[in-house]
Design brief:
Organism: Papaver atlanticum
Strand content: 15-25%
Distance between the termini: 52 Å
InterPro entries: Transposase_MuDR
Strand order of the largest sheet: 1-5-4-3-2
Shape: flat
Bound molecules: zinc ion
Number of domains: 2
Structural class: alpha+beta
Protein name: Transposase MuDR plant domain-containing protein
Pfam families: DBD_Tnp_Mut (PF03108)
């Protein structure tokens, strides 16, 4: 399996962990590699592990080794700390239509994250995620705003 880069690989594995109701931690992580193992490696000797590295001179990251079999006990409860505010914000940005307004925290919890992942998130995680979405969309607005002067210039050029 190939990914664009290590940050995208990390996002992908997090989504996998939320879906599968498991947890991992980073054994090593930098720009060129991410080695993960099960959160219960030490206390339950679970050998679930995924190692990804970037390939020199190639703009991709790929999995060099993986063992996707968890031998640890299934998570109890409906919460997974892997489902953090950054994850929730990224998921919402990925699925929100351009014209849709941003749902309130309670709606993010009940209408988006729970139906998709069967995972409960605390209110503050949803609220923090909402702020991240707003900041991200605002950033995009600023970006497009700075393009207006050059657009005006181009339109004027057409008149000449
Ligand atoms: Zn495990």
């Amino acid at each position: 399996m190939v990914f664009d880069d290590i940050p995208i690989f990390k996002k992908h594995v997090r989504e996998y962990a939320v879906m599968k109701k498991c947890m991992f931690e980073f054994r090593k992580a930098d720009k060129s590699r991410a080695y993960l193992w099960c959160k219960h490696r030490k206390n339950q000797n679970c050998l679930w592990q995924v190692n990804a590295i970037t390939v020199p001179n190639e703009p991709t990251a790929k999995i060099m080794f993986c063992n996707l079999k968890h031998t640890c006990k299934r998570m109890k409860g409906k919460r997974n700390p892997m489902c953090n505010s950054r994850f929730v914000a990224d998921y919402m940005i990925k699925t929100l239509g351009v014209t849709n307004s941003i749902p309130k925290p309670m709606a993010i919890m009940k209408l988006h994250i729970w139906p998709t992942f069967r995972t409960e998130i605390p209110y503050w995680v949803a609220a923090e995620a909402r702020l991240m979405i707003l900041a991200d969309l605002h950033g995009r607005f600023e970006e497009s705003y700075t393009k207006i002067p050059s657009l005006v210039k181009e339109v004027k050029g057409l008149d000449d």
